[in-house]
């Protein structure tokens, strides 16, 4: 954990705006590692950002300053990931999902946030949607960035988009262990393994880091007890599909909660989901858009465009 703390500190040093990083204690003794940027801007609805599988607060570094110029931004390590507590999750998909959602709500209560603009990427998008079903009063606008776990798995293999090489590599070990077990087995060679399978991450963050900082960060986020990872495995049918697909439940979000779905034009995620959500919610605001030149990690592939889109959405709230 100390190595993760050190590499994250190097990342957060890039922030220009005032920020506060600390643990938020939950009633059940778990702790959520939280970074708040521009805490002094209290007049507008805060933006809360939820990272994806295997990630953490550091991966938002290309977005934090821009998105906190006019409002407070909160981001946190999901329970079971990054520097947050790593409890034992329920082994069934509904129980694991509910544990994540409950932790987000108790975090919100502990933070004293009345309502928020809630943004989730990948797994974070899935959980942000589940949260919005259960706690619609707390969500002013739901922003889903390349959300995982929405569509039902097609019965026709030809309808499935070919996943990138790293997804295939992760999927190859799923039957035997947790998704990122290979990183823990690699030990000190772990950061090099991240760089080998995901060389694109170094390119994405090249404006800030010309070394292996991001690869080290991703490795140390995932080299610990695989708590959230085990929960994710319980929730998925296979790496790209959820056991409880969100498209079957999206209509349960209250009609007055607006939704914007942002995809990378080159993502491996099924972008037709946005159109299907519109059909599920005919009397609600649903907007979907694609960002050219971006893959699954839209926020890092095209950060300037992504930040401008999110700022526009936030300004429409207040």
Automatic annotation (TrEMBL):
GO CC field: lipid droplet; mitochondrion
Domain AB hydrolase-1: 46-301
One Pfam family cited in the UniProt record for this chain: Abhydrolase_1
Coiled coil ranges: none
InterPro entries named among the record's database cross-references: AB_hydrolase_1 (IPR000073), AB_hydrolase_fold (IPR029058)
A GO MF term: lysophosphatidic acid acyltransferase activity
Single biological process term from Gene Ontology: lipid homeostasis
Name of this chain's protein: (Lyso)-N-acylphosphatidylethanolamine lipase isoform X2
Upper lineage: Eukaryota, Metazoa, Chordata, Craniata, Vertebrata
Annotated gene: ABHD4
